[in-house]
Amino acid sequence: MLREAGIRFRVLRPYYHEKDVPGLRPAALVKRHALEKAKSAQPLVKNGTLLSADTIVYFKGGVIGKPRNIKEAVRILSKLQGRWHAVYTGVALLKLSAGQIIKKKLFSEKTGVFIKKMSPADIYSYFRKISPLDKAGAYAIQSRQSSIVEKLKGSFSNAVGLPIEELKRWVTPSFGPWFYLLIIYARLNYS
User: What domains are defined for the chain?
Assistant: First the structure.
């Protein structure tokens, strides 16, 4: 998505463990995780801009994380099918000079997603096309060949995991022409 938007970046893989924070609203939670991811990479960058993001699926007052196994993935998608849920993404931008934060921007975006009605057979068939275990909510919105999303309210790119439209407003001149993008391999199971 960043390349398509004309944003140059280098990928970093810092160490960060997401933790559930009871009582935080979804927008605050994703901003907190995005900021902590960026801060965890601060020692790796002397001068430049760190960009990090965190995305969650939120349904009926709870965060739905990545399923631990296929049985849990079926349970999650069975709950979401035929209903609306929200996808929240928090973004942190930290501009560094001599290793110190000189500018910070945090924002979050919310997208409404309606998953079409699916039978158990439809769900298993879908899982033969995508791997649900590395996806919050057990589905891949970006999978155009086997889309199960019927309706969308808001930013598609946000639902994928990075609200490009909003991010492009901050790229230059505020934060410079390119970023260190943080790719975090953390798994937090909220459900």
Answer: 8-182 (3.90.950.10)
Task: Give the residues across from 49 on adjacent strands.
Answer: 95
Dist. CA 166–CA 141, nearest whole Å? 19
Q: Annotated catalytic, 54? A: yes
pTM, full prediction: 0.85
Which residue out of 20, 54, 122, 134 is catalytically annotated?
54
pLDDT in tens, the chain (191 residues): 655 656 666 677 767 777 778 889 999 999 999 999 999 988 888 888 888 888 899 999 999 988 999 999 999 999 999 999 999 999 998 888 898 999 999 999 999 999 999 999 999 999 998 889 988 899 988 766 568 999 999 999 888 888 888 877 776 556 665 555 444 433 333 33
Give the residue from 37, 48, 47 showing the smallest Cα distance to 14: 37
- DSSP strand pairing (84-97 vs 100-115): antiparallel
Residue pair 83/150 in contact by the 8 Å Cβ criterion: no
